[in-house]
Input
Amino acid sequence: MCTLIVRAGQPLTLLGVRDEFADRPWEGPGEHWPDYPGVIGGRDLKAGGTWLAVNPAARRAAALLNGHGRPAPETTKVSRGDLALRAAYTGEMPDADLTHYDPFHLVLADLARVRLFSWDGERPVVSDLPGGTSMIVNSGLDPANERVIAYLPRFETAEVWRELITAVPSADPGALIVRHELPDGRVFASLSVMEVALAPDGVTYAFTDLTADLDG
Output
């Protein structure tokens, strides 16, 4: 996932945009993982993990974004896709040898707080997200990021967020919904949008598949 917006309060709301190569196989949300009963999310069919995991019974969600920094050695590298699953299931941040993982940002949200765990390949940093509305991108909580500059003020003031994700896909670095046609013919684009609301009386999870628009 490349963008996550979090609004503190009741309900606690997360909206994520997943950007990926269009030819990478995946399937929509479901309980795909027997080792994590009750956890739902879309599944990456190449590596088996997810970018956003929701545990409705625990009123908890975890979102994974790629980060910047030193990559893990190819000989020992493992997929980051299990991190959101484990966090949503246990409610805990990763307890693992992080040197096996490429850089990432992991957001773990429940009704009590929202935590951000960042790994740059050298050192982990854990912090609580502030109140109000936050926007996390691949460079983390980065107020200088073009996408954050363009969109965070709009998310801070909008009552209904989904109106902000209806833009035509763009190659602009500051766009929220993107489409890049690469020289080798592959397409890198926003493939889906997810909105999760956590409240004491329940959880809602809305999923929008954007792949139908890729040929447009």
